[in-house]
Each structure stands twice: as C-alpha cells, then as structure tokens.
Amino acid sequence: MAATTAIGRALFSFIFLASALEKWRALRAHGADAALFQSVTPALRSLKSSINANVGVDLCALLPSDHALVRAATVVELAGSALFACGYALGAKMLILFTLSVSLAMHPFWRSASEAAVLGDEATAGIEMIMFFKNIALVGALMFWLGMRSELSELREASKAKEKRA
C-alpha cells in the first residue's frame, strides 16, 4: 500500500512539477520577454480590471508586478509539487492554493462564454471551461487526499489506544 500511494503521489505531482520547471526555465532564459508573459499578462490585466470594477477601489495597485506574481506562483507550484510527492500535507495545500488562484485567473470560462457569443469563438470558451473544471477536479483530489490522510491518522491513533488498553 505504501508503494502504491508513493507512486500515485509522484504521478500526480509530475504534472505540476513539469509545468513549474518549464515556467522556471522560460523565466530564466527570457525573463520578462518570455512567451509565458505574453499569455499571462492579458489574463491578469483582465482579472485586475474586473476586481477594481467590482470593488470600486484600486486594490490591485497593492499587488506586485505581473512578473513577480508569475515567479511567486511558479515557486508555490514547484515547492508544492515536491512536498506533495514526498507526502507532506503542506504540499497539497500549496497546490490547492496555486490551482484555485490560477484557475480563476487563467480559465474564466464565464467571461469567455459571453465574449465568444460576440466573437463567434465558442471553441475557446469550451476549452476554458474544460480546463477550469479539470483544475477543480485536481483540487478535489487533493482535498480527498488530505481528508483520507487525516482519517487514517485518526484510525491509527485509535488502534494504538485500543492496544494499550488491552
């Protein structure tokens, strides 16, 4: 059972680890000119303007630059995937934080759907919706792992207490 869970965590972590390492490579090689920023900047700009419009105050002025946000997200993704692969709950929590924030920022299918109706690009809206819900499923799997981990811990402690009484 221990080998199965370790292999499962490693396979699950691989998607995050490979993504983070590729982002880190691109950031180191190209810096602010990386193609990564060309795809991320419009989404971040849209998210920031949506936040400002809904809040009524320029809260996004308090945020660091897009470059710093992407670097921070990459570090969270890299550290979280490594920690999760090693079986640490902190890694799962970091991946949940990363995945939820990135999903909301990068895959806002609800906005894409209204834009798609105007632009006639329904395929893009559909892809964004699939990517968003795939990420939510990954969050669900991480939450399931955290829940099972705590339940197994409680069962072990109850079993040890029962053995001491016997």
Automatic annotation (TrEMBL):
The chain crosses the membrane at residues 125-146. Pfam families: HR_lesion. Residues 1-20 form the signal peptide. Keywords: Membrane, Signal, Transmembrane, Transmembrane helix. This is Uncharacterized protein.
